[in-house]
Amino acid sequence: MMHDISDTFIFFNRKLRESFNSITGNKDGHMSKEDICLGYRCYTGEDMSLSWIHNHRPSQNSFTFEEFCAIVTEYKRKRPSVASTIANKLAGSFSWLFKSLANFQVFLGGSCGCPRNPTTWRHDIAIPFLKKENITFYNPQVNTWRPELVELEDRAKNVAELLFFVIDNKTRSVASLCEIAFLVGCGRQIIVVFNSFNSEVHEVSEELTTEKERQDISRARNVLMDIIERNSIPVFADVEVALKCAALNLKQGIKIQELTISQGAMPVKYGHVLVGEALL
């Protein structure tokens, strides 16, 4: 059925007419389906799917200028958005990595630092230890971060058997503090290594901090430590000790809450006991 194009501005578009004429050679000419794809590219700088034309005009092989206008108008309205096309391509590019996420046992979360002064605990301590113990891991710290890595990181976090977070004095780690509190509340198996925020630290991520900010960060970390311990999860002060406990959790099935002093953990006494807010 012929589309009514009397109400569309595209019929009067000079550039569209120029695209048609450049393909057919004159204003009274006709286009083939291949010509329409070429004309659409001349008009928009983008590609039109030849199979789309075959599906929508299966029995027609010759097209007038008016019909060319109708097809272009219809295709522009129904074609996938550029954003969705890019998203699909990115998903395809990372699909192999998404499938392999099920093999990651540990997610290395927490402080990353700034680009010019990144934290090094992952590469210097954690990764060599995990490789030696044949424990698979996901490292979210990359040299060049891209938005599409958000989904990849989230999937790795969801499938990991154990979450391993380190909070140090080099970064504020505000987002990590909130994230840890959420994961603890979800009942995940998590190890948290805390370097308590020293009030004498005056520079974080190459930015000077105020006295008020240092007090706020220190208070937030103390509150988080309280939340962790109230879920009977020990808090660690040493990365190497925490990694050994991570290996016990993954290889021997010992829950983080069940780790003992002999295994390097500082068990939480009566962590489940509720107290009044005035005592916090």
Automatic annotation (TrEMBL):
It comes from the Eukaryota. InterPro entries: Nuc_deoxyri_tr2. One of its GO terms (cellular component) is plasma membrane. This is EF-hand domain-containing protein. It comes from Biomphalaria glabrata.
